[in-house]
Amino acid sequence: MLDRQSMVPALYRDAMSRYAGHVQLVTTALGSERRGVTITAACSVSDNPATVLICLNNTNVKNEIFFKSGVFALNALGAHHQGLADAFSGKMNLTNDERFAAGTFDTLVTGAPVLADALAAFDCRVTEIKEASTHHIIFGEVMAVRFSETKPALLYMNRDYHTL
User: How many other C-beta atoms lie within 10 A of the C-beta of residue 154?
Assistant: First the structure.
């Protein structure tokens, strides 16, 4: 059996910065309250039933709405969304209303805000939430999808945006 060794968080983050991730905007709503967060920690889990997962920091109390709402939309961002990614990342210190004003949002099935021109949008019903260290892993069954025209994807690697 291997001894468990502690990984220095800064070293781990430096290594992970070399890992390219598609930039996503995850959104939710509960009543009149909305929340959106720029993430790269999201992926497909299954196609039957269609399921995705997202990872959200559990130390940010504003993320609690994701745990309570029961729904979320995973919006794949394109290169043309870099300003939107910055707005929802917190870099710009915008209010929640200012963040949502930076894009055009509507809804599909669940009531979660969906970015109208996302490369792909997955409208999801939460099926399971697991706590893992500093994050929650939220699984969502995809209730609806929408595609836009094919455009270059927005990626994040080496602590900067890139396109593909």
Answer: 26
pLDDT digits (tens, 9 = 90+) for 82-94: 999 999 998 999 9
DSSP-assigned letters across all residues of 27-76: EEEETTEEEEEEES-EEEEEETTEEEEEEEETT-GGGHHHHHHSEEEEEE
* Cβ 145 vs Cβ 119: under 8 Å: no
Give me the half-sphere count of Cα atoms (radius 13 Å) on the Cβ side of residue 31. 3
Query: How wide is the angle at C-alpha 156 spanned by C-alphas 151 and 158, nearest 5°?
Result: 140
For the ranges 12-26, 37-51, 104-118, the lowest mean pLDDT is seen at 12-26
Q: Using an 8 Å Cβ cutoff, are 41 and 54 in contact? A: yes
Q: Which amino acid is at 47?
A: D
pTM comes to 0.93
